[in-house]
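Course assignment 3, question 2. Fill in each field.
Student: A.L.
Task: Predict the tertiary structure for the chain below.
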Amino acid sequence: MERRSALKNMGMAFGYAVATPTLFSLLQSCKSKPAYAEWTPSFLDKEHGYAMAQTLDVILPKTDTPSATEMNVHVFIDAYLDEVMPLEQRDFVVMKMKKFYDKVLADSGKENLMDIEPADIEPALRTYLKKRTDDEEEAHSEAIMNYMEAILEGGEGSLDDDIARFSFANDLRDLATWAYKSSEYIGEEVLAYLPIPGEYIPCGDMETLTGGKAWSL
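Answer field:
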C-alpha cells in the first residue's frame, strides 16, 4: 500500500513539494535570463519550451503584478526538469506535455508549436483545468498509478490521452503557482513578507495583520 501511495504521488505531480535549498537557489538563479521569445531551453526542445512559456502566461498573466515569464517561471521549470527531477518522472512529464500540445495543435489547425498563440492554448486549459468529480479524480489517480507502476517494473504502460492532458495541465498550474510565489520579487514585494517573525497572534484578522495579503513564507 505504501508503494502504491508513493507511485500515485509520483504520477500526480512534478514532485516539488519539498522546498529544498537547492530548489530555492535554482529559482533565484533564473532572475537574469532572457525573455522567452529568445530563450533556448536547457532541457525542453525549442518548440515545447516556447509553448510552455506561453501557457504559463495564460495561467499567470501580467496584471498589476508581473506575468509568469517575467518572473522566469518557464526557465525555472525547464531547469527543474533538467537538474532535479528523477528520470522516470521526467519522462512521464514530457509524455504528458506532448499529448497536451498535440491537442492544442490539432484543435488550432496549426502544424508548428512556434505558431501557436494564447488564444490557441486557452480552450485546452479551460477543458483540462475544469474541476472534476470525486469519482473522476479517483479514476484518474488509479489510471496514473497503474501506468507508473508498469513503467517502474520495466513495462510500457498505457494511459488515456485525456487523463495525461488533465494531469499535465494541473501539474503545470500547480508548479507555476508555487514557483511564482517563491520568487524573490513576489515573495517580498507582492505577498506579506516578514523576514524576522515577531509576535505570534493566533486569531488575528488577515486584513489587520497583512492588509489582506497572503503570507510569503
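Instructor remarks: Residues 1-12, 190-194, 213-217 have pLDDT under 50 and may be disordered. Residues 132 and 138 are 10 Å apart (CA to CA).
Grade: pending
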